[in-house]
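Q: Is it fine to ask for two folds in a single conversation?
A: Yes, each is treated on its own. Send the first.
Q: Here.
A: Result:
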Amino acid sequence: MAGFDEATALHPVGDGTFDTFDAELDGSWSIGGKLNGGYLLALLGRAACVAVGSEGHPHPVAASAHFLHAPDPGPARVEVAVLRAGRTLGQVRASLHAGGRHCVEAVVSVGALDGGTWWDGVPPVELPAIESCPRLPVQGPGFEVPLMAVVAEHLDPAVMGWAVGRPSGAGELRGWAAHAEGREPDPVSLLMFADALPPATFDLGSAGWVPTLELTCHVRAVPAPGPVVVRQRVRHVSGGRVDEECDVWDSTGRLVATGHQLAGVRIPEGQAPATRR
């Protein structure tokens, strides 16, 4: 079981120009046999920061990825191309290849995260103390979730009805999240935390794999030490796809990242949501 830094480690290939890297995709960062999309985006975000260089561009600021094929754990190749390296921002195309297939294609903007919050219209989340929130187990609803061994997720008991067959129908999950190894959160790991919670469709009464098709993450600040607070909400479900939004706050209550994703969802024919909205 690799820690986050080891699981996202990059090894330059060739002449050291930082345009091609070898990586080892770690199966610990998976759900039901499929690698977590946020973990893969974090790997590409790290590659983008390395490609542009840390001076002036040390952090991922925005990242958007399309998931073409689900890679298996094991060797992978990351290819990057610097599209622009400006004074305050750089833009990088990053591709992940594994098993002879082009698996993920991303564009990442990198820069420096500094300055305070000028205005914030995102309602904060109030949670019980982390000790009062149950930690999610590795054994999921009919399948294993190894991700829960490397990411400690403690959900608010008020949103856990789906786990006992009583989803609320609100389409929202919220709780605490942290690296189980004790590592503090940083901007690269925020790309992962923005996709770490279970699908909020569970709270609508829909269970099963929800494969990410596209994931975009905006990183707003360097997080303070301590566990982050995460809220994931369903915005819309139709045509076998779900639109979800995820907000992440650090231990001081500052909004540090927001994720938006389009994912596939399997809803049995004729099944109505737990509560009609």
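Q: Second one now.
A: Result:
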Amino acid sequence: MKFATRQWMLAGILSCGLIWTGAAHAQAYPNHPIRLIVGFPPGGGTDVVARVVGQKVSDALGQQMVIENRPGATGTIAANAVAKASPDGYTLLVSHVNSNAIAPNIFSKLPYDARKDFASVIYLGYVPNVLAINPKGVPAKNLKELVAYAKANPGKLSFASSGNGSTQHLAGEMLKLSAGINIVHVPYKGSGQAITDLLANIVQLNIDTMPPVIEHIKAGSLRALAVTTPKRASQLPDVPTFVEEGMVGFTMTNWYGIAAPAGTPPEIIRKLNAEFDKALADKDVRSKLVPVGAELVGGSPADFDALVKGDIDKYAKLVKDAHIQME
């Protein structure tokens, strides 16, 4: 009986030790800079959100949050780097719908498992995709006129995207299927160069996120024809949704979140979640991101995990219908 009692006492001591060690680990974290890896070039919507929110969290934690851009393959290069990183809280991913929900359905040899290789930290939010055209290249005032022009000029219009398999690519393919038009896809390594070429009329349209295009739309150098959200975007109240324009079921958003490598201590996940959640509610952060189209959300790690896994299932059907498959 005494032996059993000693065993229970020893187990209790070890348990307390583990709890204390975990708490001490979280309390000491972070004690050096944190890398926040973005899968797209500077200037795009993902990069803008990462820099604004990351700076606020950096200030709160007292350690620099270094934004590291690793563009290419619709964000999967960055996602793979984080999936393979040490699970110590010092390498984080700006998780993106492209790399963490769409890519698992289109790449036959994805080097990471989107369901198992990441620990969800927080859902940052989303931005609508807006169909923007260069008015110098397309004489259309609305979506119906664009469709009519594309049908009269098959194969002559091209649409940009931030890469094969991105939401911009899938939205363009959905437009082709829904409207029965022939437009040519031109993939880029991110939104920055895609918008530059759209402004130069090298490509004529793009269904991109709002942050990199909204100022050009307001200035008149680009014309917005429709948004992909279920309801109109508050930043562009005069622009109808695709559904309003007669394309039933045409909804899509670009969401962002923070993810860590699987196995990151839960105490660190909780600490990061709390600080990012505070940052999303901050007036300064909201004043910079909401006007350019970002809808900031927040919530628990479990909330974000459910979103990611639900979208993996949702995009499986769209990819199948559009016959998109890449190596």
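Q: Anything structural to flag on that second result?
A: Two points. Residues 2-28 form the longest helix (27 residues). The chain has eleven helices and ten strands.
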